[in-house]
Write a structure and sequence with these properties.
Layout lengths: L9 E10 L2 E11 L4 E5 L6 H9 L6 E6 L2 E2 L5 H7 L1 E4 L11 H12 L4 H14 L15 H13 L5 E5 L7 H16 L3 E5 L3 H4 L5 E6 L2 E6 L1 H6 L1 H6 L7
Parallel strand pairs: 3-8, 3-9, 6-7, 7-8
Antiparallel strand pairs: 1-2, 1-4, 4-5, 9-10
Length: 246
């Protein structure tokens, strides 16, 4: 597989991670440029979410390095990386209980992004509008349906002011119509210059946004390139037990 791109915004250089005897990542090289949206696919247990956790700083690798704008951030924690410009939205939304939508996003802007009061409020207003949540700003976050919870998860991450946004299966559980709405939100983020790294099992949704696809299996990258070519790759088809994930 190709080595690490020296001009990358975010990169993994030989990342390794194991849990006991289980090797989850086995020397992964990966990079995303500032102007890119990259998708990651693979069967369950391929190491995809672990890779995002190592990028976000919520887990530490057993070997290799994480680079952001060429600087080694491997020893930096999640909070420090968030301030640098690395944000993550999780598969299962977990809004702060007892708080409104506005207050949830404000936590992202102030605590996660370090924005001061006036700037934080302006950032929240912009993000709520971008994510289609302005009419729900004063609603309890816990009262939202799944689509709006996922939008809130993205909004809270986006409020930090990221340069790269890590998305972990945010399409899971959505109807086709809801998925279309989510895609439009992510496309708008791309238009605003936010780099995207998106793990998703719903590949037909993913390829509407990303221009490059990375396939993983058993802790390794097994294919990389334009989405159509990757999903036709024999190793990728074999990893999905003989069925292309389309």
């Amino acid at each position: 597989m190709p080595g690490v791109d020296g001009t990358a915004l975010l990169a993994a250089a030989g990342l390794k991670k194991r849990f006991g005897a289980l090797v989850v990542l086995d020397g992964v090289n990966f990079s995303v440029r500032a102007d890119e949206a990259v998708g990651i696919v693979g069967p369950n247990g391929a190491g995809k979410t672990t890779l995002l956790s190592l990028f976000a700083g919520s887990q530490r690798p057993d070997g290799g390095r994480v680079l952001f704008r060429g600087a080694d951030v491997t020893s930096s924690g999640a909070a420090a990386r968030c301030r640098l410009g690395i944000a993550r939205a999780h598969q299962v939304p977990k809004p702060f209980g007892g708080m409104t939508v506005f207050e949830n996003v404000l936590v992202g802007a102030s605590t996660g992004g370090g924005h001061r009061r006036r700037d934080a409020y302006r950032r929240v207003t912009e993000v709520l509008d971008l994510c289609g949540l302005t009419p729900l700003a004063n609603r309890s976050a816990e009262s939202l349906g799944l689509l709006h919870r996922k939008r809130l998860e993205v909004a809270r991450a986006l409020a930090t002011g990221p340069q790269v946004l890590l998305l972990d299966e945010i399409g899971a559980g959505l109807t086709d119509e809801e998925a279309v709405q989510l895609v439009e939100t992510i496309r708008e983020l791309r238009r605003q210059g936010v780099a995207i790294v998106w793990i998703e099992h719903i590949v037909h949704v993913l390829v509407q946004v990303v221009e490059r696809l990375v396939a993983m299996d058993s802790g390794r990258i097994i294919a990389e390139g334009d989405p159509e070519s990757v999903m036709k790759d024999a190793a990728v088809i074999d990893a999905y037990l003989g069925t292309a994930a389309v």
